[in-house]
Structure formats: structure tokens, C-alpha cells
Amino acid sequence: MKKILVPTDFSDHAYYALKVAAEIARKNDGEIFLLHMLELPHEGSDALGSGKDIPEIMLFKNKAIQRLDDLMDDEVLDGLKVSELVQFELAFDGIVKISKKNDIDLVVMGSHGASGYKEMFIGSNAEKVVRNSEVPVLIIKKDYETFNVDHFVFASDFTPEAKSSFNKVVQFANEFNAHLHLLMVNTPSSFKPTHIARANMAEFVGQFTINNYSTHIYNDVNVESGVLNFTKEINADLIGMSTHGRKGLSHFFNGSISEDLVNHAHHPIVTFKI
Predict the structure, then answer these.
(1) Which residues pair with 82 in a beta bridge?
(2) What is the distance between the alpha carbons of residues 148 and 131, in angstroms, rounded to a whole number?
(3) Which of 38, 189, 221, 235 is packed most tightly, with the most Cβ within 10 A?
(4) For 245-260, how does the pLDDT look when each residue is reduced to its tens digit (9 = 90+)?
(5) What is the pTM of this model?
(6) Which of 226, 181, 219, 221 lies closest to 201 in space, CA to CA?
(7) What is the signed CA dihedral for 108, 267, 229, 240, rounded to 10 degrees?
(8) Can you tell me the distance from the alpha carbon of 139 to that of 112, in angstroms, rounded to the nearest whole number?
(9) Which tens digits make up the pLDDT trace of 117-126?
(10) CA 222, CA 73: separation in Å to the nearest integer?
């Protein structure tokens, strides 16, 4: 996690994400890319392309640069290598492009939790970033004095398809020296006998080298409730899950489960693309 992208709309929750990103960067001798997206009307983009200076656009740009400069002077970034970026683009498109252009290892962004994404990430933008980012996305819900991850819950169906992103999950857990709780949720509509679930998980885990982990099978009415209830039961620090990119969520996280967890969980969420 050497290169960390932090999109900001200058809200409190974006600042909470920046604090966490700074802590991760400091522990890993990393750098931060601080990004503000200016979403312009279509005609504004056309004007920029033709090279014309529109006073309103330049005003917004200069104000954004000033606020980024002020944020760069914040003590939370002391001693870190930080690059500031202002992009005229839709938030989702800009974040994905900047990530690829700069070989970003981790995106850290803020969310209001149960009330859903507001301010910078409105509507489908957040879902698109989480689902389509090629790199892990860490979503922060509140302010932390110190961001510790001692217990990390990763929920999956542990099918062969999930193996493609699991190395990143293990790496993330090892970076924090966290105990990795591998969770399979049994539901009435997708039930596996315990001996079969255990065998599936053992076969899956046996293909990876994990420093510190345990496996769990949890019964609940649906996957979302199972993940949330188990996380609360063990007082975990972080929830992880895999996403399926443009094809939608994996079989395990079908429909809106991923978005519901992001919105309803009080814990931070990290996602990994399959």
C-alpha cells in the first residue's frame, strides 16, 4: 500500500478518510494522492476543450486549489509525500482513471454510513467506484484517533471464482497484522450442511499462506444480516468483501447486498475486485 488515492469533497467524512490514509501511508513509507473532482455541466467541458476561460469555472477551480493547499498544510499530513490533483470530470470516471494512471494501490474514501453516501459520492457514483475499482477500496465511516485492525472479517462463498482476489485480502490482513476471520453465511435460500461448508472452506484456504486466521459458519436470515451480526458478535474492526466489477456482484454478493453493507454497517468496509 505505497500509493494511496484519497478523493475529497472537503467534508468531515472525507477528512476522516484522509486521516486513515495518512496513518496507513506513514506505516508503509507510502505517498498520498489527494484528489478533488469538479463535475461540470456538458457545456463547461466543451468550453474547456476549446481553450476558453469561463469565469465561473476558473472560480471553482481556484477555490478548489486553495482548499487543497490548505488541506496540504494540515498537521495530519506532516512528513508525508502528498500530491494534489484537481480534475474536471465525473467523480467515478476521474477516480478510476487517476488510479490507473498513477498505479494506485488503495483508494480510501469517506461515507456517512447508515444514511448512505452523501456530498461527494451521490447515488450510483459510490457503487460504481466500489464495484469497478481495480484496486481495493477502503470506506471510512467515522473519525479515528488511531486506525487499528486487530480483527478483520472477510465474508465469501469460497468458490473457485473468489480465489482471484483473495491474495489481496491476505496481503491486506498481513499489512495490519490482523486476525483474519473467514466467514461463510448460511441462509435459508442458500444452505450448506456444516460438514460440506467446512470442507469447502478448508480446500479454499489450503491454497494460500495466511499468517493468522480462523474459519466461521454463521446462520442467519440473509447474508447482510449474517455479516453484520457476526461482526458485532466478535467486535471486529473491519469488514471485507469481493465485488464483480461491471458484471455486477459475485454470486455471493448478489443484488444490492454490497451497497447495503456499505450503507448499513457502522464498521469500515474494504472491497476487492474479482
Answers:
(1) 32
(2) 25
(3) 38
(4) 544 444 344 445 666 6
(5) 0.86
(6) 181
(7) 20
(8) 10
(9) 443 444 445 6
(10) 46
